[in-house]
């Protein structure tokens, strides 16, 4: 597999947000069953999250990933550490800005991030869908969608945060085919974001097939993924609950790496790890405080699929 092809699916650069006032968000707990209570004092939680982002950014940088690290010193954006929900970037110089389900999360959008992208990368256009929030239409970026950049497919589990009409509009603008399905956890509750149940790499896909409630649809999606030549690594409900699906393939100085949390790696079976290591180096990041907010490493990394400007 050439490095050129690898970079189509696996970005070489990411945006990260380092929060100064992080906390699990009470405004999003109603439909995010991955959130958990953190009983520490607010300052202790914030300090721990700050350290986790700082260490993770340094590990990514050491692996040869370009990290654009932004500070969030605000007190009204507890989920800002998850920037992949409010914007995404695409080959050809395209950027999308998304409508967010929770009003508490709409303040996360930042013009300085978009301006950095324009300065450092070749941006042709920015399509801003955020005004659709006023119509109760939502699509939370690459949390709501898991994108196959090679085959041009957008996989999306139905939820409050994924509007089917908005998904169709995005796919028309950005040249993806939508594949929509119902996905539930082991208790039958809808899974709020697609990227906690699946992650697509260049030569593999990690997916909790059993979360797809319709049997025929489950088989169809598995066959579709396998038809691309990818090896499918099937994840259990327990592994999904430990964020094993919330991983992202990146392209570092020595080739592809799989960024995932230390908790997620611990949840994987040795045979699953052996399969993945055929295609990528494992890069575990320890983010236990941030995971209490209901997201993990994939949610923390907004991949940059843009051509860099000559410096």
TrEMBL record:
This is Amidinotransferase. One of its GO terms (molecular function) is transferase activity. It comes from Phyllobacterium zundukense. Keywords: Transferase. SUPFAM superfamilies: Pentein. PANTHER family: AMIDINOTRANSFERASE. InterPro entries: Amdntrnsf_FN0238.
């Amino acid at each position: 597999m050439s490095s050129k092809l690898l970079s189509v699916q696996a970005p070489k650069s990411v945006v990260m947000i380092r929060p100064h006032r992080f906390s699990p968000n009470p405004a999003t707990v109603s439909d995010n069953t991955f959130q958990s209570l953190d009983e520490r004092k607010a300052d202790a939680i914030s300090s721990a999250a700050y350290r986790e982002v700082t260490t993770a950014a340094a590990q990514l940088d050491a692996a040869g990933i370009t990290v654009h690290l932004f500070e969030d010193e605000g007190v009204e954006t507890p989920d800002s550490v998850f920037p992949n929900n409010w914007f995404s970037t695409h080959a050809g110089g395209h950027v999308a800005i998304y409508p967010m389900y929770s009003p508490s999360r709409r303040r996360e959008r930042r013009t300085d991030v978009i301006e950095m992208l324009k300065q450092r990368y070749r941006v042709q256009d920015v399509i801003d869908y955020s005004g659709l929030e006023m119509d109760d239409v939502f699509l939370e970026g690459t949390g709501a969608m898991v994108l196959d950049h090679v085959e041009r497919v957008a996989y999306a589990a139905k939820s409050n945060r994924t509007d089917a009409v908005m998904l169709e509009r995005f796919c028309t603008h950005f040249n993806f085919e939508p594949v929509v399905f119902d996905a539930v956890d082991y208790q039958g509750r809808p899974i709020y974001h697609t990227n906690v149940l699946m992650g697509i790499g260049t030569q593999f896909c990690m997916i909790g097939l059993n979360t797809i409630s319709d049997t025929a649809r489950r088989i169809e999606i598995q066959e579709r993924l396998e038809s691309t030549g990818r090896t499918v690594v099937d994840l259990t409900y327990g592994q999904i609950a430990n964020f094993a699906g919330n991983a992202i393939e990146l392209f570092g100085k020595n080739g592809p790496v799989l960024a995932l949390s230390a908790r997620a790696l611990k949840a994987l079976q040795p045979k699953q790890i052996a399969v993945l290591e055929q295609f990528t180096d494992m890069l575990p990041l320890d983010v236990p405080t941030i995971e209490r907010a209901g997201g993990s490493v994939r949610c923390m990394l907004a991949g940059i699929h843009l051509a860099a400007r000559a410096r």
